[in-house]
Amino acid sequence: MISERPIPERPITVVGTGTGAPLPEDVLAGAELVVGGRRHLDAVRLADGVERVVLGALAPALDTVAEYVAKDRRVVVLASGDPGFFGIVRVLAERFGAERLDVRAGVSSVAAAFARLGLTWDDAVVVSAHGRQPHTAVNVCRAHPKVAVLTGPGAGPAELGAALARTAPGRVLVVASALGDPARERVERVSPGEAARRDWGTAVSVVLCLDETRAPGGVRTVAGAAAAPAEWALDEGEFTHRDSMITKFEVRALALARLGPRLGDLVWDIGAGSGSVAVECARFGAAVTAVEKTADGVERIRANAAAHGVDVHVVHGAAPTVLSDLDDPDAVFIGGGGRELPAIVTACARRARRAVVVAMAALDRVPAAREALKGAGFDCDGVLLQSSRLAPLPGDVTRLAATNPVFLLWGVRPDSRIEGVAQ
């Protein structure tokens, strides 16, 4: 039998406001401290003697809240939208305990922005760029067709637009500002290039990034990003390629395991050929840039990406020359390079945040590639892959047909293991 206990007093009331929902009339009754952004505080009338704390630096505000809570004095925290969605509830719960919070959620800016467009958002990915480097948000916008970005200083519509104008110029950005304010609310559709040229001020609530050529469809069961593909290391027959010039699925399987492509990552595929590795990384949710020096190879990569319903940014040119114009990657696959391979590995290893994987048919090139990875501070390992596939013979019998051996070398930056998967 479960014993009943009284619900503990909740001295901190957290109220979401600012996207259309009115502030409950009773929420400020009895409050002795009210904490919030300046615009939230300016919008309410407080009784005489109620202390106000404008949220700027978080630590001093939390210390003041702690002083009031220790004396059993009631605190109200005003926040935007849903304070439990990338909001202040997280830090308050960590500091004071979730059982001491009375959270009254409003409509999040994400929900409000999609509502203004008449769009569902159970199939959208939400990423926060507030107080973070914008590259993760940019990569998610490149990889997923429907994204909401919570912006911040240095990671607003202009910065997102500038990055996407280079790699995904066909995206539509919807900039929603001052949501819930009848006098100032604006919802504007612009191209990435247009967004990059504008000064958007400080009233931006959220930016939606839409790839209307790949709009998700169908009934959803799980919200957010699509699940990982049911199959990977696809058969070579799933890709258009020339004269068997394609990374074989056995090699691709191990390469994908060492690259670890995921939503929010940027992966380079150097000497992409058919783009099989690029496409598979994109199917896992990573943003991908494929570098290919042949014009017919560029077209094959684009065709294979389209056939698998993913977006791959293709750069026509030779590495390492063209790499200087690309955003820094999280992981790199190098499947070609010839005599330039040591220089390519060196250039990639200097910029990769997490891992570099190199596939080589010529054993002579392994030592130079290994030294380049070790010289960049990577932990290095490798394996010679030799496989034999089942092949039919006359008489309804089967033989083993050997594939060409490939040496797979990989380097992992040591500190990337410590960082884990948090974005």
**Main sheet properties:** 7 strands, mixed
Strand order of the largest sheet: 13-12-11-14-15-19-16
Low-confidence stretches: 1-8
Query: Structural class, from secondary structure content?
Result: alpha/beta
Which percent bin holds the helix content?
A: 25-40%
The strand count comes to 19
- The mean pLDDT is 91
- Approximate strand percentage: 15-25%
Separation, N- and C-terminal Cα atoms: 42 Å
The rough form would be described as: elongated
- Total of helices: 13
Q: State Rg.
A: 26 Å
Short note summarizing the structure:
By secondary structure, the protein is α/β, with parallel strands linked by helices. The protein has helices spanning 38-42, 58-70, 89-96, 109-117, 135-143, 157-167, 192-196, 249-259, 276-283, 295-307, 341-351, 366-375, 414-419; strands at 12-17, 33-36, 51-54, 75-80, 101-104, 125-128, 146-150, 172-177, 186-190, 204-210, 266-270, 287-292, 313-316, 331-334, 355-360, 379-385, 388-393, 397-402, 406-412. Helix 10 (295-307) links the parallel strand 12 and strand 13.
Give structural attributes.
single chain; about 425 residues; alpha/beta; seven-stranded mixed beta sheet; five-stranded parallel beta sheet; 13 helices; about 25% strand
What do you see in this structure?
It contains 13 helices and 19 strands. Strands 13-12-11-14-15-19-16 form a 7-stranded mixed beta sheet, with helices on both faces. A 5-stranded parallel beta sheet has the order 3-2-4-1-5. Strands 6-7-10-8-9 form a 5-stranded mixed beta sheet, with helices on both faces. 28% of the residues lie in helices and 24% in strands. With 423 residues, the chain is an alpha/beta fold.
